[in-house]
């Protein structure tokens, strides 16, 4: 094991037979594993051992996979380079002087280095796709509600999904086949959600892959076969090129992106230009919403219910403050403070409500774009992987790196990052975005990029 990709290297054996028998999986350290330490990359949870498995972990075990360790990550998922981990930064296996991306940097690095066949990450604003792009592997952010989050330590619930990372599109899709499907323990998976967030009435039969009875018969994963969709057939597919997200990107990245599109056209796809006016507000809206949700979620780490103890001197406020001062890193503290501010009386309308309005606009823009295209394309990241240590001093610069990935989370859509060659020896990722529950379409198009 190398590159500091793992926080804990304990092996968890699966049930033997099954679609993932003989395959090794790295699991991001914010996904609960019964009896195996789950730190979220934080000193706060250094000795936390969950008493239960996340549903995705149960499904991995049932599918016969062997979990080879808990993967390093930005603390609580907050970062894009895996340098905010309390357990030290991860090196990019392609160039060990560079970051692997984040926040699921350990997951992507483990797969890129061959330390695991497959990995699970979580993607709140790009955390699966960003490290997949930077490490030259494949990552999928599923549609909100496709995959159970039971046992995922929450950062920003309205945005995040657990997603697969692998060296090929077919492998990533096969892992999605195993983890997707309704889960009675996660209400957000038990539906065909209508646009207002209401649940469908039909909650009868057990869904495919569900470890327990229950779940919606109409859940989109029930009839899907994501691995079979990796057939490379893009003939007749209309790909919308999101022109707004090319301005400001590194020229070398844009070159690789355009070469990948030309290749797709040569295979029978058509490309059209689409413009999403709202995306220039997406990073701001994402960070207001993500930090607001984080400030509420992370309130539970107070040294009493969870986390390092703040001692028993003074009143309970002082004790909580001492625990949080000691247990959280700088980036996490920054986000709790900003999120609390954005939600506070007098500022709520100015920041949080405005961000929600921008989010609704982003959703509408995507709806319009999918009237004209089957899938949308952008570079996954506007830049090549920075050098280790280069980005930490400037959080705003780091947030701007998420420009192409966060709109997808704001709109709760699926997207995949697939390798699209290299710029000066560094991996470049192509992002393909699908309509809600359009995972098969993006898997199909991405498999054509692999050639
Ligand atoms: N968690 C993520 O998806 C990464 C994003 N850069 C964030 O810090 O929120």
UniProtKB/TrEMBL annotation:
Superkingdom per UniProt: Archaea
Start and end residues of each Amidase domain: 12-442
EC number(s) per entry: 6.3.5.7
Positions with biased composition (Basic and acidic residues): 183-192
SUPFAM superfamilies found in the cross-reference section: Amidase signature (AS) enzymes
Any one annotated GO CC term: glutamyl-tRNA(Gln) amidotransferase complex
A GO biological-process term: translation
UniProt keyword annotations, A-Z: ATP-binding, Ligase, Nucleotide-binding, Protein biosynthesis, Transferase
Active-site residue numbers: 28, 103, 127
Signal peptide as annotated in the record: none
Gene3D superfamilies in alphabetical order: Amidase signature (AS) domain
Reactions mediated catalytically: L-glutamyl-tRNA(Gln) + L-glutamine + ATP + H2O = L-glutaminyl-tRNA(Gln) + L-glutamate + ADP + phosphate + H(+)
UniProt-listed InterPro entries: Amidase, Amidase_CS, Amidase_dom, AS_sf, GatA
Positions of region (Disordered): 80-107, 179-221
GO molecular function, one term: glutaminyl-tRNA synthase (glutamine-hydrolyzing) activity
Catalytic class of the enzyme: ligase
Quaternary structure annotation from Swiss-Prot or TrEMBL: Heterotrimer of A, B and C subunits.
Known function: Allows the formation of correctly charged Gln-tRNA(Gln) through the transamidation of misacylated Glu-tRNA(Gln) in organisms which lack glutaminyl-tRNA synthetase. The reaction takes place in the presence of glutamine and ATP through an activated gamma-phospho-Glu-tRNA(Gln).
Family the UniProt entry places it in: Belongs to the amidase family. GatA subfamily.
Alphabetized HAMAP family for the sequence: GatA
Protein name according to UniProt: Glutamyl-tRNA(Gln) amidotransferase subunit A
Organism this protein belongs to: Halobellus ruber
């Amino acid at each position: 094991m190398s590159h500091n990709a793992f926080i804990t290297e304990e092996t968890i054996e699966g049930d033997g037979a099954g679609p993932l028998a003989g395959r090794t999986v790295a699991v991001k350290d914010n996904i609960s594993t019964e009896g195996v330490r789950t730190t979220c990359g934080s000193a706060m949870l250094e000795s936390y051992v969950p008493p239960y498995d996340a549903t995705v972990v149960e499904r991995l075990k049932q599918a016969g996979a062997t979990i080879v360790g808990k993967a390093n990550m930005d603390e609580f998922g907050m970062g894009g380079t895996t340098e905010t981990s309390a357990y030290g930064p991860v090196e990019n296996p392609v160039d060990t002087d560079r970051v692997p991306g984040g926040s699921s940097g350990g997951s992507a690095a483990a797969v890129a280095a061959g330390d695991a066949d497959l990995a699970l990450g979580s993607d709140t604003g790009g955390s699966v796709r960003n490290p997949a792009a930077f490490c030259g592997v494949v990552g999928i952010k599923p549609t909100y509600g496709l995959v159970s989050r039971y046992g995922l330590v929450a950062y920003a619930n309205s945005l995040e999904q657990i997603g697969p990372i692998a060296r090929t599109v077919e492998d990533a899709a096969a892992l999605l086949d195993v983890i997707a499907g309704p889960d009675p323990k996660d209400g957000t998976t038990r539906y065909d959600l209508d646009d207002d967030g209401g649940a469908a009435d039909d909650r009868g039969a057990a869904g495919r892959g569900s470890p327990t009875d229950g779940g919606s018969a109409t859940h989109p994963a029930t009839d899907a076969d994501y691995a079979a969709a990796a057939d490379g057939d893009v003939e007749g597919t209309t790909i919308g090129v999101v022109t707004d997200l090319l301005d400001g990107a590194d020229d070398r990245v844009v070159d690789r992106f355009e070469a990948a599109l030309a290749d797709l056209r040569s295979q029978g796809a058509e490309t059209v230009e689409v413009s999403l006016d709202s995306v220039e507000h997406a990073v701001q809206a994402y960070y207001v919403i993500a930090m607001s949700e984080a400030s509420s979620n992370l309130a539970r780490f107070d040294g009493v219910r969870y986390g390092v103890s703040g001692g028993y001197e003074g009143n309970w406020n002082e004790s909580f403050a001492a625990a949080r001062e000691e247990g959280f890193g700088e980036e996490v503290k920054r986000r709790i403070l900003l999120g609390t501010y954005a939600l506070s009386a007098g500022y709520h309308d100015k920041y949080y409500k405005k961000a929600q309005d921008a989010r609704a606009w982003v959703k509408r823009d995507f709806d319009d774009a999918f009237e004209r295209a089957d899938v949308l394309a952008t570079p996954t990241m506007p830049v090549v992987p920075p050098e280790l240590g280069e980005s930490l001093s400037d959080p705003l610069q780091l947030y701007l790196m998420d420009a192409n990935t966060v709109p997808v989370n704001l709109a709760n859509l699926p997207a995949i990052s697939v390798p699209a060659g290299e710029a000066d020896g560094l991996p470049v990722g192509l992002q393909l975005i699908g309509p809600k529950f359009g995972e098969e379409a993006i898997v199909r198009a991405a498999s054509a990029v692999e050639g």
